[in-house]
Amino acid sequence: MHPLVGLRKSYLFMLILITQLLITPHVASIPDYVYSGEFINVPRLGWPVKIPLNYTLPGDVMTYNYTLEGGHTYHAYLTGEFVNLTAHQTDYDVFLYRETLTGYRYLSSHTEAAGYPEQVSNDGLGQYFTPTVSGNYYFAVRNDLMESNSSEEALLMVVEHLELNKWYSRFLLEPDEYGEPRYDTGWVYEFRSSDPRLRIEVEVPDTLDMYEARLYIMGHPSKNVGFLIKGAPAPWWPGLNGTLDGVYGGCNDDPQGFRHLDMSDSCETGGEDMLIDYSPKLKGELLYHLVLLPEYGNGTVRVRVQTDYTPPVITLMDPVEEVNSGEETPVMCRIEDRSPLSSVNLLYTVDGRSWREAPYTSVGEYYNGTIPSQSPGTVLTYKWVAVDSLGNSASRSSQFKVMRSTSIKISIDKDRVRGGDIIIMSGEMSLPNAKLQIYYKKDGTTKFDITTDKDGLFNHVFMPNKLGAWEVYAEYGGDSSYRSSVSNVKTFTVERKPTSVTLNISEPVIGLGSSVNLTGRFSEARAGYEVLIDARCSGNQTTLLALTDNEGLYRTVFTPGTQGEWTLQAVVDPDGIYTDGARSGFEKLLVSGPTIAKRVETLKTAVMKPPYVYALGAILGGSVGGGLYLARKRGLIFKKKEAEPVPDENTEDDDFDFEL
Asked: Measuring CA to CA, how many Å separate 651 from each of 197, 256, 600, 645?
């Protein structure tokens, strides 16, 4: 084969190899240190596992197997002498795995720089680890070959972490026959609190006799006792080994070991509960370890660290003071509490002695209840009662009155009335035998009290005393069971009665000194109306007064004092609220000069006065005898006409009649 052909093949193979490397995806290697060194099964949680000085050289691995429960929260961290941010000689890294049916599965790695503590977590905050399933979990601790040049002492700690004010259950078992603790013997809980009072309850079953419950203060970061790892307090690590410094540390499970007398409690008999009620004198957040030491038997204890003594806060929402009878009443409240609520009840009473339960629904902190309908006049008291999981309780009460609404409706028989007429108001009310007030309003108010009948009906008769627009309405004042109410308003108008008056003159033309009869009719047939007759002539004016009789008729006599044309008009003034009054048409009367009879009468009047009377006597004295004689002879009899009160219209104006 030609050498160039072989060279070309070599180039081709190299190109294929490079292409294969380029198109093949790169897969990052998963750290696998589970069996890279010593493998240790940790018998109990809550107690430190010591990695001695110079025990693991750079590059060495120690794997620790812990049995953890799914859903429980653990504080898993590596601390100890190597934690030194200044010298930072040793760099420990922690790798976490979960045991599976076919081996194990890598979960996470925690690789802070040299001198930093390590903390295993999956809470997103870098603080605590909560496994999803129960099983064995491998913590591989590796002394980093590249970044570490020492092998300082370290403590690996995995302890169950408690939340405050929440119940936890733990199975405990007495030590073995040699007095040695088992996995469930001498359990340790960790919790953190800055509260001024701790109330630690341990409920013990009858099958178990507890030796002791002990409380230790393991960290006080604000006083540089221990430190914070990403916000989670870690203990002063010598205290994990039982070392005591004042009130700090000293944690141990030795029955003869150290305990704080004011931070421990013991059982005298099986099933006796324990209580540690402690108020720390230290300020700030403290890290505590609670150690539970069983003595005889086994059983599940319940543990709670209570720091919340505040009762639930109940806020009534839109409480009502008065409700409608025959209707259910909604009541609402908001209940706030630091701890979960264990029970909420809505109770009500109508006699102040016996309480009944009412239903409710809730959404979050909001509660909506329903009080059943009640009869009118009932005074009902209700209360919300809330108890939280810590036994803190609170209640909030309110009261409302049950009332029934009333209604009134009125009508009137007419909306326009004449003065002196009556108006009839009728009505109905939703309540029988009720006392009402009737109000008539016109430049003031007139009130009447009435009572409805058995059907709630009523009526009232009223005679208005003023002209104009009136209002009328009915009102119910209410009582202890029924609400007040006001009727609709009705209006009516009071008017005077329209009237008319006529005027008649007996003669259209008379002589001066004569009289005429004035007559007429007022349309209101009632006696006593004053009719004023106004008479005018060439600047002369006189007024005559006449009164009507029962039929409205009137009559009077008018004697003009001046000749000429007179204009007359009858006038009746308005009568209060009753009649409008009236004016007649204008009537004419012509007065001419005196008549012969009037002149004779005037002459007679004149001559009868001195000195004419003496002369007349002398003249008549001589002729009287002859005249009388002659008259008798001729059969003539002279008579003086009697004056009529009102002359007849058909007679002559002369005052004398002569009869043969």
From this structure: 134, 160, 18, 13
- Span 239-277, pLDDT tens digits: 999 999 999 999 999 999 999 999 999 998 999 999 999
Residue bearing the bigger pLDDT, 627 or 342:
342
Report which of 551, 653, 534 is spatially closest to residue 598, judged by C-alpha positions: 653
Report the CATH number of the 408-495 domain. Answer: 2.60.40.10
- For the chain, the maximum distance between any two Cα atoms, rounded to a whole number of angstroms, is 218
**Residue found by looking up tokens 């000085």 in the block:** 53
Q: Which two tokens stand for residue 3?
A: 């050498």
**Residue 298, both tokens:** 């086994």
CA distance 287 to 240: 12
pLDDT, mean of residues 405-427: 94
How far is it, in rounded angstroms, from Cα 290 to Cα 288?
A: 7
On average, the pLDDT of the chain sits at: 88
CB 384 within 8 A of CB 367: yes
Sign, CA dihedral 218-221-227-233, equals: positive
Q: What CATH number does the domain located at 504-594 have?
A: 2.60.40.10
Q: Which two tokens stand for residue 195?
A: 């509260």
> CA–CA distance from 463 to each of 281, 427, 440 (Å)?
90, 18, 10
- Can you state the angle between helices 596-607 and 612-634, rounded to 10 degrees? 130
Amino acid at 531: V
Query: What does the CA dihedral 596, 601, 602, 606 come to, rounded to 10 degrees?
Result: 140
Q: Please count the CA atoms within 13 angstroms of the CA of 96 that sit on its side-chain side.
A: 23
Q: Could you tell me which residues come within 8 angstroms of residue 618 by beta carbon, excluding any fewer than 6 positions away?
A: none
Helices (H) and strands (E) in the chain, counts: 3, 49
Examine the pLDDT at 98 and tell me if it is beyond 70.
yes
Q: Which residues pair with 103 in a beta bridge?
A: 100
Classify 313-403 by CATH class: mainly beta
* Residue extent(s) of CATH 2.60.40.10 domains in the chain: 313-403, 408-495, 504-594
Pick the CATH number of 38-158 from 3.40.640.10, 3.40.250.10, 2.60.120.380, 2.40.170.20: 2.60.120.380
Instruction: Write out the two tokens for 545.
Output: 């007064």
- Where exactly does CATH 2.60.120.380 map onto the chain? 38-158
pLDDT at 186: 87
CATH pick for 168-306 out of 3.30.70, 2.40.128, 2.60.120, 3.40.50: 2.60.120
How many other β-carbons are positioned within 10 Å of the β-carbon of residue 31?
15
Tokens of 628: 């009388």
Q: What percent of the chain has pLDDT over 70?
A: 86
Question: How many C-beta neighbours within 10 Å does residue 48 have?
Answer: 19
- 366-391, pLDDT tens digit by residue? 999 999 999 999 999 999 999 998 89
